[in-house]
Amino acid sequence: MVRVKICGVTDGADLRAVADAGADAVGVISEVSVDSPREVDLARAADLASTAPPLLTTVLVTMPDSTEDAVGAARTVTPDAVQLHGEFTPEEIGYVRAETEAKVVPVVDYDEPDRARELDEAADAVLVDSTDDDGGGGTGETGDWAAAAELRRDLVSPVILAGGLTPENVADAAATAEPFAVDVAGGVERSGGAKDHAAVSRFVRNAGRALGEAEEVYE
Predict the structure, then answer these.
(1) Residues 6+ apart with CB under 8 A from 152
(2) How far apart are CA 29 and CA 9, in angstroms?
(3) H or E element: which one contains 31?
(4) Mean pLDDT across 149-164
(5) Which of 51, 133, 140, 191 is least surrounded by CB atoms within 10 angstroms?
(6) Catalytic: 129?
(7) Nearest-angstrom CA–CA distance, 151 and 113
(8) At what angle do helices 170-177 and 197-208 cross, to 10 degrees?
(9) Nearest-CA neighbor of 159 among 136, 142, 176?
């Protein structure tokens, strides 16, 4: 079973749509150093995380300058997991986990398999994305799914697949890479930061059909 994370939620209506669609996790973006229409301040992120229903995993997506900033943000939002962008070491990832008691998911680019292997034992999962020069995700660029499949076979940590996913390609991506989970933000939006609820539902449904009949995927 491929799990689904819908990232970049900015309001309560979109969060409810994510839950109603049957997604496994929801991401709120805060304290990032790149310009994003999906970013909210920490207070808003905390409010959104607090309204998530039981069994919907909440993920704080952040790009802090230091481990102390990461810990401070996580203590404010109190998410189930922290998706950590930046050049952090295995020791620093362990520190964030110990200080927050949250799962920590570092982000690596498709072009950085050696870094993924370096972080493997420290991470609770590794998210593979198409990042920009600053290390931010959400570029909308599709990654190398076959390379992600090879990485998945090498790692102990679960692999989360991101980068350019949409309701139309998620089944093929999941069938190729066989990841623990898939992650989408812009691929299910009607405009920057505003989710298309029908697209969210299609994405969740099609991800679940990754191993099903191809003709069913794009209904």
Answers:
(1) 159, 177, 178, 179, 180
(2) 8
(3) none
(4) 96
(5) 133
(6) yes
(7) 7
(8) 30
(9) 176
Number of residues written out for the chain: 219
pTM comes to 0.92
Please say if 196 is a catalytic residue. no
The CATH number, out of the four listed (3.90.550.60, 3.30.450.150, 3.20.20.70, 2.60.120.200), of the domain defined by the range 3-212: 3.20.20.70
Assess whether pLDDT exceeds 70 at residue 16.
yes
What residues contact 82, with CB distance under 8 A and at least 6 apart?
59, 60, 62, 70, 73, 74, 96, 100, 102, 103, 104, 105
Which of 24, 109, 129, 183 is the catalytic position?
Answer: 129
**Helix ranges (DSSP H) in 32-166:** 42-51, 67-77, 90-100, 113-119, 145-154
At 218 the pLDDT is: 43
Cα distance between residue 67 and residue 87, in whole Å: 11
φ/ψ (deg, to 5) at 202: -65, -40
Domain ranges, ordered by start, for the chain: 3-212
Residues 99, 88: Cα–Cα separation, whole Å: 15
